[in-house]
Amino acid sequence: MRIVLFGTGFVGDALARELSARGHELTAVARRPSPAATATGSVHDPSLVAEVTAGAEVIVSALPPIDDDGGLAASTPVLVTAAKATGARLGIVGTSALLPLTPGGPPLAETPGFPDWLAPRVAAHQHTLELLGSTPHSVEWLYLAPAAEFGPHVRSARTGRYRTAATQLIDPDGRSWIGVADYALAFADELERPTVHRGLLVVGY
Questions:
Q1: Residue range(s) defining the domain that contains residue 61
Q2: What span, in angstroms and rounded, lies between the C-alpha atoms of 58 and 194?
Q3: Which of 35, 61, 179, 185 is the 20 to 30 Å CA partner of 203?
């Protein structure tokens, strides 16, 4: 597949490695040069976005929820427009904070002890989901949320296994977690063999 990935940070780098290893034609775009980047520039540069997404089958956002350029609230509309123009499927790296731990329970972000400083990031992701849901039905999109315990602090080698859910976090034995390599594996699997259309998926062990 012809895939364009925006963002080569912690998650974007893992996605780039997984997708490249599978033989996909990958363009990885970063604001500044990085080992995983094959193109350098900003998602807010219309000419760059048009150039790199021309002919794309999939566009992936691994961009930060908050940054000096408006975060996901500003970058997602740009990529939605690109997806409309190209007919590409749009994939967004999500957050666990919008999902409940148990069926019918409150979202993780509304549970006691959830850090207040994360509220702007949660709001950015919530806005992104609302924006995706309001797109025309011709726009195919995927929002893939990792388990609650996820990030550079979670040291986990690639196991080649994971589970998915659509309405709650995967929480075996009281621990919801996933390593970045297996998150990238799940993302790539979903791009190659879609199970969700215009919807959210969560991945964990």
A1: 2-204
A2: 12
A3: 35
Q: What is the pTM of this model?
A: 0.95
Q: How many domains does the chain have?
A: 1
Place of tokens 């690639």: 158
- Mind listing the pLDDT tens digit for each residue in 131-180? 999 999 999 999 999 999 999 999 888 999 999 999 999 886 778 999 99
Helical (H) or strand (E) element with 90? strand 89-93
Please report, for residues 1, 52, 188, 197, 198, the alpha-carbon distance to residue 194 in angstroms, rounded to integers and kept in the order given: 13, 23, 10, 7, 10
| Residue 80: Cβ within 10 Å count | 22
The answer to whether residues 137 and 83 touch, using CB atoms and an 8 Å cutoff, is no
- CA-to-CA distance for 99 and 167, rounded, in angstroms? 7
pLDDT average, residue stretch 6-15 = 97
The residue written with tokens 């850090």 in the block is: 115
Q: Write the CATH number for 158.
A: 3.40.50.720
